[in-house]
Design a protein that fits this description.
Strand order of the largest sheet: 3-2-4-5-7-6
Shape: globular
Largest sheet: 6 strands, parallel
Structural class: alpha/beta
Helix content: 25-40%
Number of strands: 13
Strand content: 15-25%
Order of helices and strands: HEHEHEHEHEHEHEEHEEHEHHEHEHH
Radius of gyration: 19 Å
Distance between the termini: 58 Å
Length: 334
């Protein structure tokens, strides 16, 4: 009822992250999220999961979970198609205490939840909002289901931490940090499509919890690329191509801009050095990123609605290609 985590929670988290590093899985981050829920659930009997009629897609269930039914106690709620109702109920559960509630829907349906999201932030409650199918990457469902402005709009809500991880390790850290946070809600934003595992050293893994960190560096880097989630793969490939062409580039992963904004100025400057030309990549609206790249920087994003086509075709159609990123980096160097 006090909301305190078990004494061995940090060990549980460390084991979860170590397992991700060992397995090196290329999977959708929605699946990585389910793996994190599974790993944490044994240590957190107070977990109360659920989904707004999309459990099979959101993957917010785990092996031992039991669905709540009339006369049947459980720890997973089938909320039905009512995203606002689910979010508001989770706030009530968090206010009551004794549980850590989390519930899920597609990111584009965060619009329906928004007032409850705002209230969770205003009340500083530990409510965990899971949003999957986070971009044009969900493919053929088309523009009605493809979130474009949603991640940026969620970042505008005060006291709400928004995590968009790029692989299994960042997904595990995002879950752990959201659970550990006592003074506000978090969103956990995941992909439908598979994303590759990224190699890191221990220092980089520890730095994920600071919201942004140097994922790949280069001696005498001339520019830096900032990316989140599914676009990290593109950032790394573009950096490799630029390196082969004699242009050293730093790649910064920023899974949670909200947490990064709370870091001290010295750490922020160590990740994003002053005066270094910058390009940002995210499969969403571009406006948010100019605070990081400046008016002289470039943002690879989407300022239109999506289209209906396979994810790979859409990313190419909307210009999420190494050639375009390389050209953007070259343009900010002149």
């Amino acid at each position: 009822m006090k909301g305190e985590l078990p004494a061995g929670f940090d060990k549980t988290v460390a084991a979860m992250i170590a397992a991700c590093v060992e397995k090196k899985e290329t999977i959708a981050t929605r699946k990585a999220s389910q793996n994190a829920i599974q790993a944490l659930s044994a240590a957190l009997p107070e977990f109360l999961g659920g989904s707004a009629d999309l459990t099979g897609s959101n993957l917010t269930n785990w092996k031992e979970c039991v669905a709540v039914r009339a006369g049947q106690p459980g720890n997973h709620i089938n909320y039905g198609v009512r995203e606002f109702g689910m979010s508001a109920m989770m706030n009530g559960i968090a206010l009551h205490g004794g549980f850590i509630p989390f519930g899920a829907t597609f990111l584009t349906f965060s619009d329906y939840s928004r007032n409850a999201l705002r209230m969770a932030a205003l009340m500083k409650q530990r409510t965990l909002f899971v949003f999957t199918h986070d971009s044009i990457g969900l493919g053929e469902d088309g523009p009605t289901h493809q979130s474009v402005e949603h991640v940026s709009s969620l970042r505008l809500i005060p006291q709400l931490d928004n995590w968009r991880p790029c692989d299994t390790v960042e997904s595990a850290v995002a879950w752990a940090e959201a659970v550990k946070r006592h003074d506000g809600p978090s969103t956990l934003i995941f992909s439908r499509q598979n994303l590759p595992f990224v190699e890191r050293d221990a220092g980089q893994i520890a730095a994920i919890a600071r919201g942004a960190y140097v994922l790949r560096d280069a001696p005498n880097a001339k520019a830096l690329i900032i990316a989140t989630g599914s676009e990290i793969e593109l950032a790394l490939k573009s950096a490799e191509q630029l390196a082969a062409e004699g242009v050293p580039v730093r790649v910064v992963s920023m899974p949670c801009a909200d947490v990064f904004a709370r870091q001290d100025a010295e750490y922020q400057a160590s990740v994003l050095p002053k005066g270094m030309p910058r390009v940002a990549i995210e499969a969403g609206v571009t406006d948010f990123w100019f605070k990081y790249v400046g008016l002289e920087g470039k943002v690879i994003g989407i300022d239109t609605f999506g289209e209906s086509a396979p994810a790979s075709a859409l990313f190419k159609y909307f210009g999420f290609t190494t050639d375009r990123v390389v050209a953007a980096v070259r343009s900010v160097l002149h």
